[in-house]
Design brief:
By secondary structure, the chain is mostly beta strands. The protein contains no helices and 11 strands. The strands form 2 sheets. Strands 2, 4, 5, 6, 9, 10 and 11 form a 7-stranded mixed β-sheet that branches.
């Protein structure tokens, strides 16, 4: 399984960006996928996740501004980022669990290559 990210780049504060994460492997069917980010000098933090039952979860810092979604037919994960601010700057990673029968939901096994998001004021 490979997770290939696209999107990201530079944006002004208050603007919007969309990140994508395409999962290869025709049989890959994760229970849960998510987005993480890491700012310079800081630990990686969870941003949002979406499960196969449609449930979503968000970090408090992005609630109401970011939306996670997944196109199950195409196996592509998205993160719509709105009203961004300087604190959203960092490298963003998508992740997916194993999807194996009996596997643990949201126990992320696969990671994207990372994409940089830079918010300027």
């Amino acid at each position: 399984v490979q997770l290939v990210q696209s999107g990201g780049g530079s944006v002004q504060a208050g603007g919007s960006l969309r990140l994508s994460c395409a999962a290869s492997g025709s049989t890959y069917s994760p229970y849960c996928m998510g987005w993480f980010r890491q700012a310079p000098g800081k630990q990686r933090e969870g941003v949002a996740s979406v499960s196969i039952d449609g449930s979503t979860a968000y970090a408090d810092s992005v609630k109401g501004r970011f939306t996670i979604s997944k196109d199950n037919a195409k196996n592509i994960l998205y993160l719509e980022m709105n009203t961004v601010n300087a604190e959203d700057t960092g490298t963003y990673y998508c992740a997916g669990d194993s999807g194996l029968v009996g596997g643990t939901w949201c126990d992320f096994q696969y990671w994207g290559q990372g994409t940089q998001v830079t918010v300027s004021s």
